[in-house]
């Protein structure tokens, strides 16, 4: 049974999550069907591999994400300020406290991961903790806890995983079906062309669907955090400060962080990145404009 919190409900986000998961699920059913039709003899291996990856992703997504981003769990004694902020926000939102972690990087950011509120993990980087004032830090953490409360972090984790699955299944299919079909040169050549093409199409469509959802969910989390804390100006200050600091971070560190942009509070962009064209986040101007509107509403 899903837990309810004091975060403002967002029906628009719920509809978008349901639509995205339906379309991506349909897309991958078609993808699996195409692979099975093309490689009849290899279908048991394909189904077993896909099922195994799904189980691993569902049960261990939080640990995989934390490990990939260099996060380590910390105790209240090791990070009293960070734990104190999370404790206050969880009490305010009436939600279970997630595990708390710190990533040792100068890139100022934060993220949340986990398949449910009870299994969630919230992480802040050392660069973020050094730069933000307490109220600003609480605004950022409230934003991340909003992702957990609305369960969109679980949807994004699963949706992003499907792109990895497409590439992995393609390699498995080529290895399991084509490599053992060396005596059928014409069929092998056709499969070698069709399977990667189908995989690329599937990946591009799933990428665009997750990006559309990601941009909306960031605005939703900003809105939820601002209404919960009653301090949209603190969140706006954190956004402005972090965005301004990104240009001072070494390009090498930004490139290392870019693959995880969909999960970050603010995207990490290196100067020559094409990610701006397919951004996982709305623009800074859009986010600040929404917070300004909320400020006027609260003042009234």
Automatic annotation (TrEMBL):
This is Protease HtpX homolog. It comes from Streptomyces chumphonensis. The active site is at residue 144. It is a multi-pass membrane protein. PANTHER family: PROTEASE HTPX (PTHR43221), PROTEASE HTPX HOMOLOG (PTHR43221:SF2). GO terms for biological process: proteolysis. Binds 1 zinc ion per subunit. Residues 77-293 form the Peptidase M48 domain. It is found in: Cell membrane. The gene is htpX. InterPro entries: HtpX_protease, Pept_M48_protease_HtpX, Peptidase_M48. Its EC number is 3.4.24.-. GO terms for molecular function: metalloendopeptidase activity; zinc ion binding. Belongs to the peptidase M48B family. The keyword Transmembrane helix applies. Its main location: membrane. The lineage of its organism: Bacteria, Bacillati, Actinomycetota, Actinomycetes, Kitasatosporales. CDD domains: M48B_HtpX_like. Its cofactor is Zn(2+).
């Amino acid at each position: 049974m899903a837990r309810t919190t004091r975060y403002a409900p967002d029906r628009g986000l719920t509809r978008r999550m349901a639509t995205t998961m339906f379309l991506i699920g349909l897309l991958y059913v078609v993808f699996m069907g195409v692979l099975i039709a093309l490689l009849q003899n290899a279908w048991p291996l394909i189904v077993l591999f896909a099922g195994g990856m799904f189980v691993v992703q569902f049960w261990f997504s939080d640990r995989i994400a934390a490990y990939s981003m260099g996060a380590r769990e910390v105790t209240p004694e090791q990070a009293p300020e960070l734990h104190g902020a999370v404790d206050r926000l969880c009490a305010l939102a009436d939600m279970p406290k997630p595990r708390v972690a710190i990533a040792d990087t100068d890139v100022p950011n934060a993220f949340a991961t986990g398949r449910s509120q009870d299994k969630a993990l919230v992480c802040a980087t050392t660069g973020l903790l050094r730069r933000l004032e307490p109220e600003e830090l609480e605004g950022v953490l409230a934003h991340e806890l909003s992702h957990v409360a609305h369960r969109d972090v679980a949807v994004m984790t699963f949706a992003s995983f499907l792109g990895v699955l497409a590439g992995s299944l393609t390699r498995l299919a080529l290895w399991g079906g084509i490599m053992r079909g060396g005596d059928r040169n014409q069929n092998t050549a056709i499969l070698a062309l069709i399977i990667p093409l189908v995989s690329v199409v599937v990946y591009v469509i799933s990428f665009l669907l997750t990006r559309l959802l990601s941009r909306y969910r960031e605005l939703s989390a900003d809105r939820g955090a601002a209404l919960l804390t009653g301090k949209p100006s603190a969140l706006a200050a954190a956004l402005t400060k972090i965005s301004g600091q990104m240009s001072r971070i070494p390009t090498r560190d930004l490139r290392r962080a870019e693959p995880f942009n969909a999960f970050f509070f603010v995207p990490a962009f290196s100067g020559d990145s094409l990610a701006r064209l397919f951004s996982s986040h709305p623009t800074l101007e859009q986010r600040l404009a929404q917070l300004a509107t909320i400020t006027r509403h609260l003042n009234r």
